Amino acid sequence: MDPRGKVAVITGAGSGIGRATALALGREGASIVVADVDDTGGSETVGMVKATGARAAFVHTDVTRIDDIDRMVAFAVTTFGGLDIVHANAGINTPRPHFPEAPRTAWERTLFVDLWAVVGCIQAAVPVMRERGGGVIVSTSSLAGLIGYIPDPIYSAAKHGVVGLTRSLVFLKAEANIRVNCVCPTVVDTPMVTKRNVQVAAAGLPPEASAAMPLITAEQVAEGVMEFVHDDSLFGQVMGIVYGRPRRLVPPALNLV
Fold it and tell me: What is the distance between the alpha carbons of residues 209 and 230, in angstroms, rounded to a whole number?
């Protein structure tokens, strides 16, 4: 897909990976809906996208609320005329203490933001994309969606869910010309990582519970998102983005079909 003239919605676009994707799409001529709970960060991203010459608008969106997700999609349609690209990117870590000591309200919110909201965004976007003749949906999973992640088992469970969902939605390509893929980066240099490392230190956990590997940039993840947007042959795919290595598609560990 050529992003020029298309309409994109990005959740968690007030900073980090979402902001980097918004800028990348804006530079290629897409109109951007910046969705976030952070009004200040969202407004800053809008200004940055507009500086590239692209159109952009902010909509306050709590992805744990289905009404907000529906309103976000409707906002894209009424503001820019439709919806062609979705980057379901919003994500959080589970706050301390470590699971299973973590209170239920803490790990439930992680599942809501990191998995339930991805499902909700896809379900809300598909009918609009179907009317447009197709579209592209890219979710942000994680390396923790491909391997175990001891510091945050609930985060890992949610990100595994995103990977499974992505691979299970291949039928949308034939049915509605909608391609669903996801990126699985290692630790990314974002405000969420900074916040997590402060929490880890405050909890007195060992250093390996924080970001023990070198950080990749949000822009490197955005490049992976853009590859999925551009390449019409890619659907149901999972992309690993690891420090110091070329990004690559990761096949299922076992295929019994």
Answer: 36
Give the residue among 138, 113, 125 at the shortest CA–CA distance from 25.
Answer: 138
166 secondary structure, DSSP code = H
Full set of structural domains in the chain with CATH = 7-240 (3.40.50.720)
pLDDT of residue 254: 74
CA distance 180 to 166: 6
Find the length of the chain. Answer: 257
Decide if 155 is catalytic.
yes
More confident: 200 or 227: 227
- The active-site residue out of 58, 80, 99, 155 is 155
* pTM strictly above 0.85: yes
State the pLDDT at residue 193. 57
Q: Which residues pair with 178 in a beta bridge?
A: 135
pLDDT average, residue stretch 11-20: 98
Alpha helices in the chain (DSSP H): 16-27, 39-51, 66-80, 104-111, 117-132, 153-168, 171-176, 191-202, 218-230
The 8-class DSSP code of residue 247 comes to: -
Q: Find where tokens 């976007």 sit.
A: 125
Which band of pLDDT confidence, cut at 50, 70 and 90, is reported for residue 171? very high
Using CA atoms, how far apart are residues 117 and 16, in angstroms rounded to an integer?
Answer: 18
The answer to whether residues 86 and 182 touch, using CB atoms and an 8 Å cutoff, is no
